[in-house]
Write a structure and sequence with these properties.
Blueprint: H1 2-36, E1 43-48, E2 55-59, E3 63-67, E4 74-75, E5 80-81, E6 86-87, H2 88-96, E7 110-114, E8 119-125, H3 130-139, E9 145-151, H4 157-167, H5 172-180, H6 195-206, E10 214-217, E11 222-224, H7 229-237
């Protein structure tokens, strides 16, 4: 028992030394970068990167830079694991920007249900987005799915006006599909509470949604771009399937 206590004390001492060293290292990086780069946003976190001697510097929630142990150099770019052929920076960003599907504000979306609706998909789209229109045409062939449509007017002021027109109709899903798929003119003269659009924009900004369409699947994985119906099916069946955006 005495020997076990002895080794436990040694481990505690080593842990304390290592923790103090790591804290000092982080403090040095923060100090040097803060003093030398006045325009650098407040640093959220500093952690060791997968590359020995290189540290990850995270700012603005999900913006990633890399630096050495002294903060003498700042690197912007991706770390690629050439052995495993993995983009480690991209994987890290995926974790940072992951969306908890069940916590999405579904009251700020309208739904389109096909078949039994058991599978679930959330989509952020702009009514003026040509890629979205192509995606919507392909999506017509995907069955047994509930689509939660978040209007996300980011392309122009006219996008906001069109989104308001869609949101203020009685059957939002039909109006949306008439406009996106069948090129039926949007109704005019309707009015309602459209604060939802500002909330959707804030939600998208929080999760770094910068383009449309952006798809979010039930496991929280997200795919930017107008992927095909076959690719949507793969993600609905196996959310981790590899795909190529268009």
């Amino acid at each position: 028992m005495k020997r076990l206590r002895f080794f436990a004390l040694i481990l505690l001492a080593l842990c304390g030394t290592l923790c103090a060293s790591a804290f000092a290292q982080e403090a040095a990086i923060r100090k040097n970068l803060g003093e030398r780069l006045a325009n650098l946003p407040k640093i959220d976190e500093i952690t060791k990167s997968p590359v020995p001697g290189l540290y990850e510097v995270r700012v603005n929630g999900t913006d990633i830079f890399y630096t050495d142990a002294e903060g003498n150099f700042l690197i912007q770019g991706n770390i690629i694991d050439t052995k495993q052929r993995r983009n480690l920076t991209e994987e890290r960003l995926d974790k940072l920007t992951a969306i908890d599907f069940d916590n999405l504000p579904f009251k700020d979306a309208f739904t389109i249900v096909r078949g039994n609706g058991k599978r679930r998909l959330a989509v952020f789209e702009d009514p003026n987005c040509g890629y979205c229109k192509r995606f919507e045409r392909d999506l017509q062939t995907v069955n047994n799915v509930t689509v939660y449509m978040f209007l996300y007017p980011i392309l122009s002021a006219d996008s906001a006006e069109k989104s308001k027109a869609i949101w203020c109709t009685k059957d939002k899903g039909k109006t949306w599909q008439d406009w996106m798929v069948r090129e039926v003119a949007l109704p005019t003269g309707g009015s309602c509470d459209t604060a939802v659009l500002a909330r959707n924009l804030a939600l998208g900004k929080k999760h770094k949604i910068t383009g449309t369409p952006t798809l979010v699947f039930a496991d929280g994985s997200r795919v930017p771009g107008a992927i095909s119906a076959q690719q949507v099916e793969k993600f609905l069946t196996d959310p981790r399937s590899d795909t190529q955006t268009q």
